[in-house]
UniProtKB/TrEMBL annotation:
<dbReference type="InterPro" id="IPR036046">
    <property type="entry name" value="Acylphosphatase-like_dom_sf"/>
</dbReference>
<dbReference type="Pfam" id="PF00708">
    <property type="entry name" value="Acylphosphatase"/>
</dbReference>
<dbReference type="InterPro" id="IPR020456">
    <property type="entry name" value="Acylphosphatase"/>
</dbReference>
<dbReference type="GO" id="GO:0003998">
    <property type="term" value="F:acylphosphatase activity"/>
</dbReference>
<dbReference type="InterPro" id="IPR001792">
    <property type="entry name" value="Acylphosphatase-like_dom"/>
</dbReference>
<feature type="domain" description="Acylphosphatase-like">
    <location>
        <begin position="22"/>
        <end position="109"/>
    </location>
</feature>
<keyword id="KW-0378">Hydrolase</keyword>
<protein>
    <recommendedName>
        <fullName>acylphosphatase</fullName>
        <ecNumber>3.6.1.7</ecNumber>
    </recommendedName>
</protein>
<dbReference type="InterPro" id="IPR017968">
    <property type="entry name" value="Acylphosphatase_CS"/>
</dbReference>
<comment type="similarity">
    <text>Belongs to the acylphosphatase family.</text>
</comment>
<feature type="active site">
    <location>
        <position position="37"/>
    </location>
</feature>
<feature type="active site">
    <location>
        <position position="56"/>
    </location>
</feature>
Length: 109
């Protein structure tokens, strides 16, 4: 039997495009005045193909909104929870939604 470079169709994994998501996160703790938003932006750019922003809130929290493939958003969320962030994270609350669009790149607000 001759060698074929491609496996039979029943052995090939179908590449299914990853579902888009919108992740909104509120991070509390000592997260303002420590470069948290800038590091969050850098991490989002490192993960790639995420759009959104990081913003200081008047109550001392940082809000992060990211849109992109769900797996990429999950990587950002895991980093926000990792303890490997600037400052001291006391808690992270997130909600998931469908993407709304309207963002270009990842901004600091």
């Amino acid at each position: 039997m001759p060698h074929t470079p491609f496996p039979p169709a029943h052995h090939r994994s179908a590449e299914v495009p990853e579902e888009g998501a919108r992740l909104t996160v509120w991070v509390r703790g000592t997260v303002q005045g420590v470069g948290f938003r800038w590091f969050t932006r850098a991490r989002a750019l490192e993960i790639g193909e995420l759009a959104g922003f990081a913003s200081n809130l008047s109550d001392g929290r940082v809000q992060v909104v990211a849109e992109g493939a769900r797996g990429r958003c999950e990587k950002l969320l895991a980093w926000l929870r990792s303890g490997d962030t600037p400052g001291r994270v006391a808690g992270v609350t997130e909600i998931w939604d469908t993407p709304r669009g309207g963002y270009e790149g990842f901004d600091i607000r």
